[in-house]
Amino acid sequence: TAYEIRPRDWSSDVCSSDLTCNHCPYVVGWEGRLQELARHWRARVPFVGINANDSIRYPTDDFAHMQQRAQPGLPYAYLRDEDQSVARAWGAQVTPEFFVLDAQHRVAYHGRLDARHDDPRAGEPRLHEAIDAVVAGRPVVIAETEIQGCSVKWR
Length: 155
Hints:
By secondary structure, the protein is of the alpha/beta class. The chain is built from four helices and seven strands; from the N terminus they run E-H-E-H-E-H-E-E-E-H-E. It is globular and about 40 Å long.
């Protein structure tokens, strides 16, 4: 069933969202840390994953595969941007690409989760730091980082 989610539907003024997909090695590499972060903030910040990839040319990004990925208890909403309008409006370029929205629903952070998708010890927990700052009402010190990932699969 398709439905629309609006910020007023959240229990928080802050939201963390990422443009994602099912197959990109960057998504796969960061997924465990993203789930940990979503669980850590569960009571205060909704996390939303949005898949906008063309599922005709990339069938592993179709809704059925999304449902399979969500089966093991994914701790965040996983939504389909079928017409790619959200990805285009946000200027998305890669998956995963992270956004933190503040209480006024403005982008307070845009970038990657941390330093390296393939090395959790590399540090620079940028997404966590951004959420922490926004929840506390402080400005995000590093509001944008270089994005790393697979290109969005446009129609």
